[in-house]
Amino acid sequence: MSLNSDLTIVLDVMGGDHGPSITISAAIMAIKKQPNLHLILCGDADIITKNLARLKISPEQLANHKQLSIFPTTEVVLMSDKPIVALRNKKDSSMRKALDLVNEGRAQACVSAGNTGALFSMAHFVLKNIPGVERPALISSLPTHDAKKRVFMLDLGANVFCDSHVLYQFGVMGSVMAEQVDGITKPRIALLNMGEEAIKGSDHIKMAALELSENKDINYVGFIEGCDIFSNKADVIVCDGFVGNVALKTCEGVARLVYQKSKTAFSASLLAKLFGSLIKPSFKKLFKTMNPDQYNGASLIGLRGIVVKSHGNANASAFLSAIEEAIKEVERQVPEKIKNSFEHNFTVR
Amino acid sequence: MSLNSDLTIVLDVMGGDHGPSITISAAIMAIKKQPNLHLILCGDADIITKNLARLKISPEQLANHKQLSIFPTTEVVLMSDKPIVALRNKKDSSMRKALDLVNEGRAQACVSAGNTGALFSMAHFVLKNIPGVERPALISSLPTHDAKKRVFMLDLGANVFCDSHVLYQFGVMGSVMAEQVDGITKPRIALLNMGEEAIKGSDHIKMAALELSENKDINYVGFIEGCDIFSNKADVIVCDGFVGNVALKTCEGVARLVYQKSKTAFSASLLAKLFGSLIKPSFKKLFKTMNPDQYNGASLIGLRGIVVKSHGNANASAFLSAIEEAIKEVERQVPEKIKNSFEHNFTVR
Does the keyword Lipid biosynthesis apply (chains A, B) (predicted)? Predict the structure, then answer.
């Protein structure tokens, strides 16, 4: 097992609705695209071996493979497992061991399509928060009207309720993420609210606005409404996990509805069918991006290690996107940069 | 001024971004469609007279008009007015007087495209809650995958935070609304949450779920996620005003994004342009329905009178839809039915 590769990422291959059939296909796609990438396949050794054989990689080839290795585990966290039960009882699960490998420095990031609640609890327990971070958050990105720009949004469901200081910290972490991963100088940070006026919203949102506007390292641009999430008025949108989860899933719902209605329109006549077949791929891509954790994965930030969550229902190309997201975060050293930012922010505050 | 018509609705003609030029055009469209409708045009008499003249109704014709009359006022609530200031200082505004006329029984409903916060505060102050109702709510409807069904959603922004009993009451009011206005027997009531499982979400949502499931008059069907708002799994979706506002405005944002992207696709080639011109009307209509307060208006329910809020940016046909929504609620006696339901629910609980 070569762990001296430039870049080592561990995959929880057992997670997700489709498990190894998807995750291992994505792994092969990833190593082909990135020659300096080493992937540790964490899970049931027999199942992994069989799936590799299906993809024309024999046990002999694996033994000498420079980019692939197996870390065998005996348990699997099920989609139906309660987080607390998984955390207590499944210490030899593929998910838990993948996180342990990140914690031990044997991998630089972990990618899983497994049970979100369990992954969040385990990651929090194993990797611990970056000093000063009160709550880790789930972050992902959505498309905007400007084809070249995306907008990060957090928290997407890791924390049901967040007080003003936690929202403030999400702003700081989101700023680092947009700066490092998308190379944006002074990312525009906005708070999701029910109106743009300063008098709108709950007290904790108003307090968070005050805290963000007082930090000179943060380019706080004010409140933003749901209708402007995609308007490229901000690079990072901050909200609590309940609101973020509802907003994100509403996007998915609208996209599905419009897709269904457009399919009906595209089958109305021969001309419509012809045109529909031309336009469908670009529409399909747009609708996929409206479901970002399915498309790019969502990252848990605020922890001492990198954890990317792919959608439970992800296909191989979506899981590949999640691996690529993890690679970016490793290359840009996102946890390290958040740590620096928090050290700096805690001395100046 | 004939106030003995079967159906009398008062319009705050000064409200909205476009004011009388839109609201009075919509009024003329409404009386043409509904011969037993009487509309009271509440606002600046000179401006109203000029706008009626533009639409070929002379002062002489108005004096004897069976369906139109003016209620002159001297003040206007501006979109920028703070609710509390409007409530205290603008007692002769078109908005306030329109609500007064409903309170005095001289009109059966009020329609306004004015400042939402001010309308909500004034309506609450003038009309008062139905006995037993803790908080009035803003309700509107969204399209579903089933072209013949819509889904009501409340609260859409009248109340930032709602405790469990307030959410429960929203469920009861929403049930009455769906039953009366859309004729649904035993409407399916769901709570918007970040997961379908019973363990998900905040304590007040879990408590509201318990309260709703214990009321045998309510067909409570459980939690629903944002992605299923449009899936026709519920007839009424209940949430607090912050979450509802974000969800609703996110729908509008996604619709705008998809519309922009599809316009780009529709202009890519000659064939695309040709097909685009064929398909655009049906797309446009769908996107409009994703912005329901612009399309149908949103109603304030839980008050002793009927108040329908049209979007500030509504055009004449959208303001007409809001008038038609008000007519429906008058015909089905929604406040009376909510009152009965609350009396019944408070004796059985």
Answer: yes
